[in-house]
Every structure is written in C-alpha cells, then in structure tokens.
Write a structure and sequence with these properties.
Elements: H1 40-44, H2 52-64, H3 68-73, E1 90-102, E2 109-120, E3 123-136, E4 139-144
Antiparallel strand pairs: 1-2, 2-3, 3-4
Bound molecules: zinc ion (ZN).
Zinc ion is lined by residues 27, 29, 31, 38-39, 57, 61.
Length: 154
C-alpha cells in the first residue's frame, strides 16, 4: 500500500469553480454544468460520485445516453436487475430533484426524491420516485426506488 505524504489530502471539489460550460454540451441532469465537468467523469469511470444525489444525477444522465453498463454497475448487489428503460423510443426530457435526505460524504445511506420527465411516442410521462441509495465497498449504489408519495394517504 502506498501512501502519499502531501500536506493536505483534500480532494478538490467539483462544483462552483466552473460557473458556465466552457466546452461540450450542458449536462443532461440539469445541473447547469457541462457534461464533462458534471456526470461525464462518473460515466467514464474516472471519478466516483461522493453523494447520493450525484449518483442519482449520473444515473439519470446514463439513462439519457443509454449507458446500460453504468446503470448496472451502480446498482447495489441486493438490487434485482432493474428494468432498464433504454429503448430508442424513450426520450428523456429533464430531471428535477425535489428532496434529499442524508446521502452526504459521511453517510452510508441516503434518499433522493425526484421527478424525471420523458416522452414515448409523442406522449409525455413523469416518473416520480424516492430513490434509496446505500454505500457498498465505499461507493454509492442504487438500492431501490418506491414511487413518490406526495399525494398523501391511499
Ligand atoms: Zn450531470
């Protein structure tokens, strides 16, 4: 095991340092950053999301790019094979994060409630889900996603 002796082991956070996308397309997840500065490194495997929300966003982006390998790789081992909506007929329109609970760098579990909009055959749909995330071997993974319950009782 090698151990670097840098004075500070801090990792430079990716975030407000890139106020506007300099090159490349805006990230599909709607963060306002360029794909290369946002979800791109996660999908390329060159970086790991450090929060549940970052993983959630990157998985949304993976859907938009039909990146099945990434979606599988970011599922918790106990999660049954997800039904991947990767058909060419599905066009993802946007992502809106409604609520997040835990899922930060020091947490081992987290939840993200979101609405993703997509279109199939000219008809628009909304996917409202509360995704649960859990750390597995140090990295965030997707556990499951019961539908959102913003409507109240049954
Ligand atoms: Zn993104």
């Amino acid at each position: 095991m090698t151990r670097s002796t840098k004075p500070s082991g801090e990792v430079t956070p990716v975030g407000p340092r890139q106020p506007h996308p300099r090159h490349g397309t805006p990230c599909p997840c709607g963060s306002g950053q360029s794909y290369a500065a946002c979800c791109g490194p996660y999908l390329d495997g060159t970086a790991l999301p450090d929060t549940a929300e970052a993983l959630m966003r990157s998985r949304y982006t993976a859907y938009t790019r039909r990146h099945a390998a990434y979606l599988k790789a970011t599922c918790h081992p106990s999660t049954p094979s997800p039904e991947l909506v990767l058909a060419e007929s599905v066009k993802w329109l946007g992502l809106r994060i409604l609520r997040r609970e835990a899922g930060q760098t020091g947490d081992s579990e987290g939840q993200v409630e979101f609405i993703a909009r997509y279109k199939v055959g000219g008809r628009a749909h909304r996917l409202h889900e509360v995704s649960r995330f859990r750390r597995f071997e140090g990295r965030w993974t997707y556990l499951d996603g019961p539908p959102g319950h913003s409507g109240g009782g049954v």
